Each structure stands twice: as C-alpha cells, then as structure tokens.
Amino acid sequence: MDKSKKQLIIIIAATFIIGAGIATLVFLLGGNSKTKTAETVAESEVIAADVESTAPEEEVPETVAEAEEPSTEESGSAESPAGNAAETAVNDSAQQPASDTQTAEAATTEAAAAEAASPSAEAAATEAPAPAAASGTPVSLHGELKVNGTHLVDCNGRNFQIKGVSTHGLAWFPEYVNKASFQTLRDEWGANCVRLAMYTAEYGGYCEGGSAQMKTMVNNGVSYATELGMYVIIDWHILQDQDPNKHTAEAIAFFDEMSAKYAGYDNVIYEICNEPNGGVNWPTIKSYAEQVIPVIKKNNPDAIIIVGTPTWSQEVDKAAADPITGYTNIMYTLHFYAATHKDSLRKTMQNAINSGLPIFVTEFGTCDASGSGGNDFSSANAWVDLMDKNSVSYCIWSLCNKNETAALINSGCSKTSGWSESDLSDAGKWYVGVLNNGVPLGSLDLADSSQSSQPSDNNNNNSSSEPAASSSSANTSVTLTQSNHWNDGKADFYQYVVNVKNTSSSKISGWSVTVSFGGNVSIDQSWSGNISASGNTVSIKPEDFNSSLAAGESVEVGFIIKTSETLGTPAVTVGN
Asked: Which one is catalytic: 110, 115, 271, 275?
C-alpha cells in the first residue's frame, strides 16, 4: 500500500472515531434529562437493559404514595376530592415504565398540586377519625341521637334524655377538662354528657385573642368525652358580647372547622350562641343562626344544633312562634336559675313545647341568676320534674370550685376528679341525687330549701337576707333585698333581688321600679329585667315574659351594682 492510501485510511478512521465519540457524547448529554441511571448506557446495551430491569429498586410509585397520599388516620375521609386526586395521580405513576422516573416525578407534582388546589385539602388532612365508643357507655348503648318532635331519641328510636354537666368558662377553670374528671362524672355521678363552655369575649375568650388556647381545650374535651363514650356539647358561649352577630365570621370559621373535624362522630353536639341578651331580639338571633347552621350541615347533615333564644335564653316562646325551617335536628335553648326563674318561666317552656318546639336546657342552676345567693331546691325539683315529664335534656352549671353557690365543687377542694361527698357543694350533692334517682351522695336534706350557701367571688364578703327597702302602690308591692356585698380592692359590689307582687284581685300588665342610692352606681350584671343606671338611680322594667302578673303572682329580678361611693340606705318607688 502506498503512502497516500495509508494516509486516506487513517483520515477515514479518525473521522469515524471522532463522529462516534460526538454521537456518544450527544447521547449521554441527552440521557441526563431522563434518569440518573442512564449515565452508563453508552457502555453497552446489556448495561442499559440491566439499568431498566433494576429501576424498580428506586420504588418511585411507593415513594410518591408515602409522600403525597394522606393516610386514612389523618384524613378521615375517603371521599375527599383532594384525597381522590392524589390517589389517582399516584396510581397513574405506578403504571409508568419503571425506568422513566421523569413521568413519576410529574405524577408526584400533579398529586401535590391537586391537594394544594383543593379547598377541602386542609380539612381532609385534619379531620379526626370516628372512634368506636367503649362497650357499655352511653354512646355505645344509644348511638347517634336525633330530634323527633320535641325531644331527642336514640339510635333505637327510643326517647332519650341527656343529663350532663357544664364546665365553667374553659379559660377560668381549664384544670377540670381532663379524662379522670369526666370519668368521675360518668361513673360516680351518672352524667352522660359534658358541655364545654367556650366564652367568646370574656377573659381571653375565643374572639379576644384566645382562639388557639380555646380550640385546644375544646379538642381535648371532645377527645376525653369520646374515649369515655359520653356526649359532648361544643358551646359558643355568647354573654358579654350580647349579640351573636358581633362575631358571625369567627363563628362560621370555628364551626366549619369543628364540624368538619368531627363529622363522623356520633356524640358531638353544637350550641351556636349561649345566651343572647341586651335587647337582642329573635329575628336577629335567627338571622345569625341561619348563617351558621348551613356551614355545620354542609359537613354533617345529621348534626344536632342548639340555638340560643332572647333574654339570656329564656324567651323560647319567640322561637316557637317563628322557628327555623329547612333543617332537621335543630333545638332551642332555655336557661333557668331556680331561685330566680319559677312558675312563669316554667309555664313559658311548657307552652313552647306544647306548640312543638324542641327545647334543650343546656345550662341551669339551683340558685339565683347571678350564680350566688341561696339554693332553692324546691323550685329546682319542680324544674326537674317538668323536664323529665317532657323528656327535656339538661346540663347543670358548673364544674368548678369557684366560691359561688352555682359551683358543684366546694371552694376549699383542690381535687379535679374522684370527689368524695365532702368535696361537693350543696348544689353538687343535690345534682348527684337527681342523677341517681333521688339518692344524694351527702347528708343534705334536699327537702329543706332553707339550707343555702352565701358565697362570694371576692374578699370582704358580707351577705344579708334582710329587706333593704320596700314600697307599694294600689295594686303592686315591691321588696328590695341585698343578698351579697364584696370589695375587689378597687370598688364595692352590691347584689340585690327585687320582688314585685301583684296585690290586686285582677291581672296587671306592665310595672316599673326605681331604686335610689346615696351615691353614683353602675350596673355590673342584671337578670330577668331591663335594668339600667343613671347617676344614683337604677331603673327597672320587665321583660316581655314577666310584664304581666296574674292576681297574687310575683316575679323576681336581680342586679349587681358597682360603686366607689358610700350608698347609704336605698329608697324604692313603684310604678305601673
């Protein structure tokens, strides 16, 4: 071979080698966008085949499922749109060639995007599973309740009464929200329900900066009650904020979250406005309720919802005349305090029931409406007889050791569960007797309503049951009695009860009372009347339910005044 031919062969060979190298480089560079295991594909087709056959070792579909699909325990909803989208994307990724991880990565992104885009993704992730109630407990025996006519029935269609205990404000006495406490109520007292009183305004209430703490307390309370097979009421405790519409947006958000979280629970009941007051009428409350109810029903169509009524949940007659329609399992709140609310309010409740209104007494006490004063067990027994006769459910106020008559635990007792007879207040002993067919834990003679506690929320307490002043007109007599006095270190507080009696032989409609003091006062609390203060004068007018008095009938109203001045002896004037 001559020299020129050799040179030509060398050039051709070099060209081929360079071309092959360039092709290999292009292939390798392109292969990086497919999969990291393809970096050695140029070495041989055998290696490439081996890479493809071993790709499942990357466990791409399983990794996607673990990273993107909500677990059943966390989501609690197999039908969540977000959950279905994620699951579909995961299953699609599992059907792709095992060596093509780019497709699997796209499926992962699609699943994540589906969850992020879904409005209910967060709710699905936080919805609690519905645990089975322990055998032999109230919920295991009676299951999910529903409203039938004017009362509750259990899962077997039998009439059922909730007989429970309300906490005090969760922010005030959080220590009583514990499993051992609830178990004592169930096993030793005979209660089947706990009401969780979550204040919205007072003392760091939910709408006043305490939402995170309150939500935790509520969730803990629901968890303990559920573990024990007890029913539980989540109470949006309107009080000083008076009009529930003040916090409608917060209520909607709260009940949306709670009802989604507990949608599968058979034991959770929603009370959406504790005690509307301050002149808030039924149409205003109804308007609020008709905004909140659909939010709960969207998540749980079978939920039982309790709606408050005007004047601290006493005017059930107003709701009876214009009930909420379009929904099932709606009930209406009535609250009473036995020493204040007697025959007149009992008559109002019975009339409302007769008209077909389902009533739930979510809060009551044996004393006066302030939570203090003496116990009136005679009136309390009359209330229990009426509620039992009509299968009305009820919860007593309150589970705490506050130094007031309404507290069920003695103020000197620091236990938060396992209470003995001596640990209970007179009201506590009485209620245990109610729950146990009249057999009290203690030695209190329940027939003797003259036994009473005279407590105080503060220091320097001085109580009196002597009339402070009285007055009369042609057909009305009025007696003003100071029932309590204390000083909080800044001001004096005086509690008064006003008894108004029709002394004539015929019905009277409308009455008024004026009380004059020796110094300026302001109203701290009032109940069962329209009561206001200006300077040294307190003006009292009736509510609708107690404005008319039959011959010989009497009514009690009450108020607490605050002052830093010397008051002297008050003077009373009665008008009609």
From this structure: 275
